[in-house]
């Protein structure tokens, strides 16, 4: 890729996320009294610091265990072996736009463990579907606490739930009817994609076959049950982190609203994402908690405290893991370009 084209692609990736960040930040800060926010930090109870650290480690531990289970049909690995690429991907999401950290994670896993990237990528897609299943459950529980929430987010939740159920059903069908699906893809490739070079069509069929291996965890009931359990466990810990951030800034009685905040964040970041989800997290805190009567300044203070925990430790841990792989940052950037081009 030429330097000029590379710059255009990077700008194209960045602009949608910047637009989302600008809108979210404008909404979030327009009524904030920064003097009051500083007071919230000044009066905060910092005994929560070690607990937040433990919760964050627990979140990524559950996430690594789940990814290891998803990867078992592709390659049997230890949890520690998948934790590094996982953290590198999250670090990249904090620095790069448009969820490019997911491509980085796939590249690092494929490069360091010599496994099919198509199969690894399919596990990342399946991981997101299980995330949405757990998150929508928590969101539904939180919405029961206040009728205003049911009115505000009812249609959005139903839409996302329908899409998630449809894609998950498609993944299950794909896993249990792999041969039929491959034959359909081959037929479509030969009949409708005849203008493409033969090696491209063959690569498409091979990619579909490899992806089926990555979804193979759904064939094993014990693995599938473990994946579901860890999905709920990790997002419950994230909800506790939101709740503890609110408690730290002086807001009590907000546990169920914290589950709603986590659910809305998880759905909102499916939009074109700015690096580190700047503005999106603040928007979710303020818009949701405002429905529960929490003032904007406290919600902003809690969102900043929570966001710092998601950004600083995760980015530092990911950079450290990247140095241990021997792969440079330049290779990570080239990996995102290669994936964008279909390589």
Descriptive notes:
It is a single chain. It is built from 14 helices and no strands. The protein has 343 residues and is mainly α. It has one domain (3-340). Helix 2 (34-42) packs across helix 13 (296-325), helix 6 runs antiparallel to helix 7 and helix 6 crosses helix 9. The protein has helices spanning 3-29, 34-42, 48-71, 79-95, 100-113, 117-143, 147-176, 178-192, 198-214, 221-248, 255-268, 280-291, 296-325, 329-340. The protein starts with a helix and ends with a helix. Helix content is 80%, strand content 0%.
Can you summarize this structure?
The chain is mainly alpha-helical. Helices cover 80% and strands 0% of the residues. The protein starts with a helix and ends with a helix.
Report the β-strand fraction as a percent range. Answer: under 5%
Largest sheet, if any?
Answer: none
Shape: globular
How far the N terminus sits from the C terminus, by CA atoms, comes to 12 Å
What's the tally of helices? 14
User: Rg from C-alpha positions?
Assistant: 21 Å
Helix/strand-derived class? mainly alpha
Number of domain modules? 1
Order of helices and strands: HHHHHHHHHHHHHH
Helix content: over 70%
Q: How many beta-strand segments?
A: 0
Poorly predicted runs:
338-343
Q: Can you give the mean pLDDT?
A: 82
